[in-house]
Design a protein that fits this description.
Arp2/3 complex 21 kDa subunit ARPC3, 10 helices, mainly alpha
Length: about 300
């Protein structure tokens, strides 16, 4: 789902950078109005868990793979505005440090996943989250977040002059719908696991065993399970291959750990696990820093 540099035309990525920057600024103000000091650790742990979970690609059939995006999970736990801020931080770290998603295309990825994704996830949650249909809201919100982001990707590619014939479009929509269903199922499973540890923890997240469990899960995912991630292309990469634009992908910035690997030296475990663990730590630090900035803005505006 991460658009690399080279896929979008200059007018498209430039416009999306401008609109996404404005959108994140607006959502940041909303996050600062409601963020309490004792919830700041939650931003760091949830951000780290989603970062690590995005590293785990698993086969989904028809020669493709998928992974949790996490916009819905962040939205249900943090609220849409803080979720958008944390997701933006994750996407920026991925682009700048790991060459996962383009630097020039960062605005597109932020708009698709951090802004549209969280807002789409919030719609079912807003109306059904406090009812007996809460589990349905989790599934629908998570699935909708991915499918809306995918539709925006297709629109952005089309606006950039990429030809998407009907056969390719049909296959892409099928793959994106499959990814959406899996996103909903995985997010619901995570939410149920969290509530099993602490009943109603999602409605009122608090300090307790859930936070250490999420932190430990992030470390295990990034440091060990990511070693066994599927090498198959995801839905967007498959679309790029079919549309003949895969060769356009380029790196405009030299990242220190491209593709989540150390450039050279050491064992395979070290080369592949160290970047993931570093990414988890960096995500925690950035999310905590952003949380403190937002909390101070709230105190200053009080």
């Amino acid at each position: 789902m991460h658009i690399p540099d080279g896929f979008l035309s200059t007018p498209v990525w430039a416009a999306l950078n401008a609109t996404s920057a404005a959108g994140v600024a607006w959502l940041s103000r909303g996050a600062s109005r409601n963020l309490e000091e004792n919830r700041i650790p939650l931003l760091g742990v949830m951000g780290a868990f989603v970062f690590a979970a995005q590293m785990i690609n698993f086969p989904v059939g028809v020669g493709t793979s998928g992974h949790l995006v996490g916009a819905g999970l962040l939205t249900f736990v943090l609220g849409p505005a803080p979720a958008a801020v944390v997701m933006t931080a994750i996407l920026a770290i991925q682009a700048l440090i790991f060459q996962d998603g383009g630097v020039l295309a960062l605005g597109a990825n932020v708009g698709n996943m951090a802004i549209a994704g969280t807002l789409a996830a919030y719609l079912p949650w807003r109306f059904l989250g406090a009812t007996r249909f809460r589990r349905l809201a989790v599934f629908l919100g998570s699935a909708l977040s991915v499918f809306v982001a995918a539709l925006l990707v297709l629109a952005e590619l089309s606006l950039s002059g990429v030809a998407l014939p009907a056969p390719i479009l049909r296959v892409s929509l099928f793959l994106f719908m499959l990814a959406a269903v899996l996103e909903g199922a995985i997010t619901l499973a995570v939410m149920l696991a969290l509530e099993k540890m602490h009943p109603r923890w999602i409605q009122a997240p608090r300090q307790g065993s859930a936070l250490p469990a999420l932190a430990l899960a992030a470390l295990v995912l990034a440091g060990f399970i990511a070693l066994f991630a599927s090498p198959l292309p995801d839905g967007l990469e498959k679309l790029a291959e079919e549309a003949g634009i895969a060769g356009r992908a380029q790196a405009v910035l030299r990242s220190p750990m491209p593709d989540y690997e150390l450039p050279a030296g050491g064992s395979e475990w070290l080369r592949r696990s160290a970047p993931g663990l570093a990414g988890v730590a960096l995500t925690v630090c950035v999310a905590l820093l952003l949380g403190r900035v937002l909390a101070r803005q709230r105190q200053g505006g009080a």
